[in-house]
Amino acid sequence: MSPPVPPVGAAPLPPPPPPRRRPVRLVAVLASVLIVALAAVGLAVVRPGPLAGWLGGEDSRTAAARTPEPPPPAVLAAADGNAPLPTPEGVRAALEPLVRAAALGDRVNVSVADVTTGQALYGSGQDAPTVPASVTKLATGVAVLAARGPAYRIPTRAVAGAAPGEVVLVGGGDPTLAVDKNGFYPGAARLDDLAAQVRKALGGTAPTTVTVDSSLFTGPVYGPGWDSDIPTGGFGAAITALMTDGARRDPAEARRTEEAMNHAAERVPQPDLTAGRQFAKLLGLSGAAAEVKRGTAPADSGASTAGTPAPGTELGKVESLPMVRLVDIMISDSDNVIAEAMARQVALAKGKPGSFAGGAAATDQVLGELGLPADEISLADGSGLSRTNRISPSLLTDLITLAGNGSHPDLAAIFGGLPVGGWSGTLDERYQASVTKAGAGVVRAKTGTLSGVNAIAGLVTTADGRLLTFAVLTDRTPDTLDETRQALDRITSALAGCGCR
User: Fold this and answer.
1) How far is CA 81 from CA 39, 247, 465, in A?
2) Which residues does residue 159 pair with via DSSP β-bridges, in sequence order?
3) What is d(CA 71, CA 442) in angstroms, rounded to the nearest whole number?
4) Residues taking part in catalysis
5) What Cα–Cα distance (Å) separates residue 330 from each residue in 135, 243, 396?
6) pLDDT digit string, tens, across residues 129-187
7) Is residue 104 helix, strand or coil?
8) Do the strands 209-213 and 292-294 form a parallel or antiparallel pair, or are they unpaired?
9) For the purposes of burial, counting CB atoms within 10 Å of the CB of 267, is it exposed (0-12), middle (13-18) or buried (19 or more)?
């Protein structure tokens, strides 16, 4: 979950970087420039440059007319696959005084391992099931990349209904679907494009009504174990197979206030019906005709009468961003709505119901198929909002090692969205203090925050250039958010600043 309050600001690290362009979001940017030569355990990460150009959203003639920008400088130096391996004794000496910090509470579970060899270097409660909060998204990201593949796109379709002029809008589970070019997520599929396809397919038949088919997702729309304020707090939403802009009521306002609100935004209570009404207006319907109802799309019979599309005939289709970019957004922005949609994609790929329970069961199944200890993970949702989720730190370091050792190249896409210490995402303003600055630029991690729960898991390059993975999970922390975060950062900075031999 995105932190409930923005972190305290701090001055930039010396030496000052080039003027910072704060990107609206890290959508697959790092996935395209992140060279994870992880078979040899190298990691090169660069600072975003001409973002729109990388995303294909800028006219090439306009781009060519501008002064070319210099190549973006590195944020993380490439790790050295031949760097000396830290010793368990060295890592223990560096970390044990830090894991006992009072700000971390009385339950601190830690795992540290080497990415090249997979060797465990330190553990304290490493196999203990712990509330992970948003660190859960690492498991969700790996599972959906394995189940669907990085190139998979989620379709949203329109088909002919049973009545003349009836159009059925069929949700495929794309949470980033936009109404028009002003959508919240750059490059998302758009309902206005779909409406244009429908009008062309209908020819002379005027649309009369819109029916919404959001039956792909089943069960409750809010997750088990969610705090009571999640539906109205701005960080979660009703999870339906059809929605626009992550169920945000006003995507333009959400973009404008995104940073100040720490990604929170007002959400609509019935995202599928809201999307249907928006689509009806795009088809030119108004008044009573613009009202929509839920229903089920008829099966395609393949027949047509006098040029009129038969019930079930596909009238148009748009597709989401590729899975790799959805995973990037999910991780970099800690987007809970996307995470829940991704968990359901895992469920659907595995033939399970598109529900909270189906997504959790399918994620466990996929991780087991990857050879990970599935008995060390028990999920109720895909975002980490649920307090009933449990993951062991060692499963997280095993998962990161698997994604990073070159044995499953498709899984390396999870690294593109990971925030960088002292620079981006939820780590933007962290690693600024003198006791943590060693981690700035060399820690790349997903954070997790619920009241009483603080976690961090990811990668760090040691002073000798060795790439390690770590997971620190605490679920009994005192009400000292800033102090708890700094205590976590001191642990990862200690790994960054030593050879630990």
Assistant:
1) 9, 44, 8
2) 168, 314
3) 20
4) 134, 137, 334
5) 11, 16, 17
6) 999 999 999 999 999 999 999 999 999 999 999 998 999 999 999 999 999 999 999 99
7) helix
8) parallel
9) buried
